[in-house]
Amino acid sequence: MDICLRKQLVVTVSESYIKIWNYAQKTLELQMKAQIGEEMNAVAFHPSGFHIVVAYVDKVVMMNVLSNSIKEFNTFQNLKGCRDIRFSNGGQYFACGLNSGAIHIFNFYTGECPQNMQCKGHVSKVRAIQWFEDDGGFASGAMDGNCFFYDL
Asked: What is the 3-state secondary structure (H, E, C) of the chain?
């Protein structure tokens, strides 16, 4: 689940559905069913409310949130086991926490993840990522109880 900062929206993900809710009006705005055999693990709302990033078991997908549908526009096939996704406060980056303990930082606008933005250090699954206020770095926590701080 993630909350949009600029709109009154919440996105939730289950194994087979993405749902976008309006929490002010208490209504379901949009929903999308996953393809058969695809399971979703995590979701993050872009601060603008116009985009989401969804982690499937074997890939990560960037999607546009339109007025009456949700459409894919970029897919990263090489990211398996992503369990946590967080957008930076400005929305220019998003972080994907992987089961391997690595965290990959992507530029949202270009879709690139340079080698120097692949953070390694955890020895178990990454479970939480929180960006610093100035988007200059982030803190992460893993299943082993360790917490790391990264400066970009």
From this structure: CEECCCCCEEEEECCCEEEEEECCCCEEEEEEECCCCCCEEEEEECCCCCEEEEEECCCEEEEEECCCCEEEEEEECCCCCEEEEEECCCCCEEEEEECCCCEEEEECCCCCCCHHHEECCCCCCEEEEEECCCCCEEEEEECCCCEEEEEC
Q: Please report the domains of the chain, with CATH numbers, ordered by start residue.
A: 2-151 (2.130.10.10)
> Residue 34's pLDDT is what?
85
Of 149, 141, 119, 47, give the one whose Cα is nearest residue 89. 47
The reported pTM is 0.91
Residue 78: CA count within 13 A, CB half-sphere: 5
Please give the pLDDT value at position 61.
Answer: 95
CA distance 49 to 47: 6
The residue whose two tokens read 């400005």 is 90
Chain segment 40-52, per-residue pLDDT in tens = 999 999 999 999 9
